[in-house]
Write a structure and sequence with these properties.
FAD/NAD(P)-binding domain, 2 domains, ten-stranded mixed β-sheet
Length: about 450
């Protein structure tokens, strides 16, 4: 099997050097950071985007490639509907095929009880004009010929889309550069530069970049960055395992998932496969510190996490990872350029077996590559998208909880509006930072 595409070549596409001045510095070269940079540049801002490793080197290239409205938290859904339109616009502005296809996304129900749960989300779809509907058992069998499973029904959204993450996000970075964004890879943001009680720039490993505004879109590393400035958010990271098959006959053109297998057709004729439902948490100091905030989620889904021993050395929540440093110190961000967890091969082997059982007439499944990614999650499974009152001039966009790739353009546009002080166009109260300290109950999304 070939290694994961993003990590095969560590030579930066954007080596810098970092400029000394900007209107806005964006920290993090994933889909959220890149899209934020695009819309800031289009608003006339001089933008510098800092990435400690490679553009899309972490979860933004390691996700399933789903661009879904279906099943979204009701407060995320209007931003996701906007993101669908923005994806179409952005795909037309690249010079390559990012694999964007509108082929529908489907959740399959094995029991009537599961189907009844699926139906509960339909009113949210109707409010926002999303074309989600329920398929009967007969309609599901017709839509999924060749499967050995007899489903009770399904929930399908024809307007949902898919794309190739490790192609799409670097292509978006190309748009950002053409809009005038200065992208600098292999350049860690060590800490904020504060003056007179507000942000004055960022101290990087290459020196200082002065800027009155900073957007933190650091994914799994955001909590660690903030903790060094005395700001605590209950963010954890969980591992997801993914595999890509060699080309196989087409059994669906879009994406689908049941309790055992999530699959997406890729443009190369293979499938991206993942085991849905249970993520893997490496237990570290943050897991203990944030436990009270996660009790509601644990009661709601007590078997939704597999607990693993201490995180590997250098991971954001590893026991030996530094939590405090100064501007001249080598930081954890420089010590681990790309968070590249080893996949759980036992789980992926079982996944392939279940996929083969799902489609027994499929030729023997050969894997092209396997990988894992660390998803930044929050206790209520929705992100933080807000100004940081304790650090004026800082806007936070993190904790996308596995939803970031699809909603990326929409959240990028919203974060840019927060910086600019213009109308964001959506109610962001669900995503405020203060919900973790003002006594608000944790309300997990779907």
């Amino acid at each position: 099997m070939t290694p994961f595409p993003i990590t095969t070549d560590m030579r930066p596409s954007y080596p810098g050097p970092a400029p000394t001045k900007a209107d806005v510095v964006v920290i993090g070269g994933g889909v959220i950071g890149v899209c934020t940079a695009i819309y800031l540049a289009r608003a006339g801002q001089r933008v510098t985007l800092l990435e400690k490793g490679r553009i899309a080197g972490e979860q933004s290239s390691r996700n399933w490639g789903w661009i879904r409205q279906q099943g979204r938290d009701p407060d995320e859904l209007p931003i996701m509907v906007e993101a669908i339109h923005l994806w179409k616009d952005l795909a037309g502005q690249t010079n390559q095929d990012i694999g964007l296809r509108q082929n529908s996304l489907c959740y399959l129900a094995r029991t009537q009880a599961e189907l009844a749960q699926f139906e509960l989300w339909l009113p949210h779809a109707r409010i926002h004009g999303v074309d989600t509907r329920i398929l009967s058992a007969a309609e599901t069998a017709q839509a999924f010929p060749g499967t050995a499973v007899r489903y009770a029904g399904a929930r399908i959204t024809p307007s949902d889309m898919r794309a190739e993450p490790w192609v799409a996000v670097p292509a978006l970075a190309g748009i950002a550069v053409r809009e005038g964004v200065s992208i600098v890879e292999n350049c860690a943001a060590r800490m904020l530069d504060m003056a007179a009680g507000r942000v004055a720039g960022v101290v990087t490993e290459q020196g200082r970049v002065s800027a009155p505004w900073v957007v933190l879109a650091g994914g799994a590393w955001s909590s660690l960055f903030l903790r060094n400035h005395g700001v605590s958010i209950p963010q954890l990271s969980v591992r997801e395992n993914v595999a890509a098959t060699q080309p196989l006959p087409e059994v669906l053109s879009g994406a689908a998932a049941d309790n055992d297998v999530a699959l997406r057709r890729r443009v190369d004729g293979g499938y991206t496969l993942a085991p849905p439902g249970v993520t893997e948490l490496f237990v570290g100091p943050d897991a203990f510190r944030t436990l009270p905030k996660y009790l509601t989620q644990l009661r709601h889904s007590p078997f939704g996490q597999t607990l693993l021993p201490a995180a590997p050395k250098g991971f954001p929540d590893a026991w030996g990872t530094k939590r405090r440093w100064g501007a001249q110190d080598i930081t954890p961000f420089e010590q681990m350029r790309i968070l590249d967890p080893k996949p759980n091969m036992k789980k992926l082997t079982e996944l392939v077996r279940k996929f083969q059982q799902m489609y027994p007439k499929m030729p023997p499944v050969e894997l092209k590559t396997v990988w894992a990614g660390m998803i930044d999650v929050m206790p209520d499974i929705v992100p933080v998208v807000d100004h940081c009152a304790a650090l004026p001039g800082l806007v936070i966009g993190t904790g996308m909880s596995g939803h970031g790739f699809g909603i990326g353009p929409g959240m990028g546009r919203v974060l840019a509006a927060l910086v600019m002080g213009t109308d964001v166009g959506h109610d962001l109260s669900r995503f405020r930072l203060g919900r973790f300290s003002d006594g608000s109950p944790m309300r997990p999304g779907p």
